[in-house]
């Protein structure tokens, strides 16, 4: 299967298995509120969305600017996304154009880690392998010797 087909299949599985609203909705990112919260404008309203399954540095952390820069780079140039609700205010956020899952890209780049308390699905196991690889290759936050590796 091509990578594109795998992403489409994953998106369909998320839609079918979602515990929240099962309908994806398009939007434009207005603000990066924190390292894992986005403010997104839909056609009718503005919503705060937390990236499902990941955690990152808290607001005010010295590395927050690096994380936000990574998010901006991933979203550029359109800032358009497709949001798939998962539970509560958590969602999968796919970048318009290439279909990449934003949380996955942050983990791959070393700017987020898997939230082991809330992320127990099949995709989370894959993300844990991406996290281990980012740590091993000292990408992003993991390049900083003082960064707490025990996360």
Tell me the overall shape. globular
Category from helices, strands and their pairing: alpha+beta
Topology, number of strands = 7
Strand percentage:
15-25%
Instruction: Indicate how many domains the architecture comprises.
Output: 1
From the N-terminal CA to the C-terminal CA, the straight-line distance is 34 Å
| Helix content percent band | 25-40%
Q: Ranges with pLDDT <50 over ≥5 residues? A: 11-21
Second rung of CATH, namely the architecture: Beta Barrel
CATH topology: OB fold (Dihydrolipoamide Acetyltransferase, E2P)
Q: Indicate the radius of gyration in whole angstroms.
A: 15 Å
Q: What do the pLDDT scores average to?
A: 86
Quickly name the level 1 CATH class.
Answer: Mainly Beta
Tell me about the biggest sheet? Answer: 5 strands, mixed, barrel
Major sheet strand order: 1-2-3-6-5
Number of distinct helices: 4
What is the string of SSEs from the N terminus onward?
HEEEEHEEHEH
Description:
- The protein is α+β, with helices and mostly antiparallel strands and 151 residues long.
- The chain has one domain: OB fold (Dihydrolipoamide Acetyltransferase, E2P), CATH 2.40.50.
- Helix content is 33%, strand content 25%.
- It contains four helices and seven strands; from the N terminus they run αββββαββαβα.
- The protein has helices at 3-17, 64-75, 102-109, 122-136, and strands spanning 25-32, 37-41, 46-51, 54-55, 80-87, 90-95, 113-114.
- A five-stranded mixed β-barrel has the order 1-2-3-6-5. Strands 4-7 form a two-stranded antiparallel ribbon.
- Residues 91-143 form the TNase-like domain.
- This is Nuclease (SNase domain protein).
- It holds the Pfam family SNase.
């Amino acid at each position: 299967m091509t990578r594109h087909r795998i992403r489409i299949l994953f998106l369909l599985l998320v839609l079918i298995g979602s515990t929240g609203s099962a309908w994806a909705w398009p939007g434009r990112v207005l603000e990066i509120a924190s390292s894992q919260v986005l403010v997104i404008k839909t056609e009718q309203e503005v919503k705060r969305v937390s990236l499902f399954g990941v955690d990152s540095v808290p607001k005010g952390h010295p590395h927050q600017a690096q994380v936000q820069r990574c998010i901006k780079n991933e979203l550029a140039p359109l800032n358009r996304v497709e949001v798939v609700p998962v539970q509560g205010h958590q969602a999968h956020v796919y970048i318009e154009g290439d279909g990449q899952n934003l949380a996955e890209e942050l983990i791959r780049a070393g700017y987020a880690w898997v939230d082991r308390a809330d992320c127990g699905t099949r995709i989370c196991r894959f993300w844990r392998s991406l996290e281990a690889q980012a740590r091993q290759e000292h990408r992003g936050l993991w390049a900083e010797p003082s960064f707490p590796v025990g996360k």
